């Protein structure tokens, strides 16, 4: 693939999960082909069902012709229970949050701009004030990529006993919002 290939984006919601579930699982299997023996990686279909079961679920799949190049999905956090709050010292004026659960691009389309295209398009239509995501701490280049997209690390967490330790990354979706103070400094 050449850099800056534009994929055709299609948006899907909660009710579309039966239609797109297998596509998400197939993209994941390709993206993690070398890690499919990891029990945590094998749990991905359950995570798809969990996130897709949220009425606010929003997903974009990038298509290159009839092939899925990648996807991004997430859902709004439940008001008052935004788990990232334990990592900040000051409550933001508007804590409404979109939780970006997955951004995944198949190897053939990596380094083409598809990831940023999916990411920015998914967040562009959000009404929430903030976006949050987790990045495996053993992948500093991925963390640096998100930092280049205006995220900043506010802490670390391991959400499941068998999961990696993740960097908790937060981004303002409104230019008018002031910087959130973090417990990390």
Automatic annotation (TrEMBL):
N-acetyltransferase domain residues: 7-172
Ranges in a coiled coil: none
Molecular function, one GO term: acyltransferase activity, transferring groups other than amino-acyl groups
Keyword Transferase in annotation: yes
Keywords of this entry: Transferase
Protein name, as recorded: GNAT family N-acetyltransferase
Species classification: Bacteria, Bacillati, Actinomycetota, Actinomycetes, Kitasatosporales
């Amino acid at each position: 693939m050449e850099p800056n290939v534009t994929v055709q984006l299609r948006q899907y919601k909660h009710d579309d999960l039966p239609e797109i579930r297998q596509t998400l699982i197939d993209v994941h299997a390709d993206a993690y082909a070398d890690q499919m023996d990891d029990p945590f990686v094998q749990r991905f279909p359950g995570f798809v069902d969990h996130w897709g079961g949220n009425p606010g679920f929003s997903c974009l799949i990038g298509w290159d012709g009839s092939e899925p190049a990648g996807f991004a999905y997430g859902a709004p956090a439940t008001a008052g229970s935004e788990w990232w709050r334990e990592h900040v010292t000051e409550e933001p004026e508007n804590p409404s949050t979109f939780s970006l659960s997955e951004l995944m691009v198949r190897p053939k389309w990596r380094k083409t701009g598809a990831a940023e295209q999916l990411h920015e398009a998914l967040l562009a239509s959000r009404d929430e004030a903030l976006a949050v995501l987790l990045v495996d701490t053993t992948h500093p280049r991925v963390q640096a990529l998100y930092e280049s997209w205006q995220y900043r690390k506010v802490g670390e967490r391991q959400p499941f006993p068998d999961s990696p330790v993740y960097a908790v990354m937060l981004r303002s979706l409104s230019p008018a919002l002031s910087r959130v103070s973090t417990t990390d400094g």
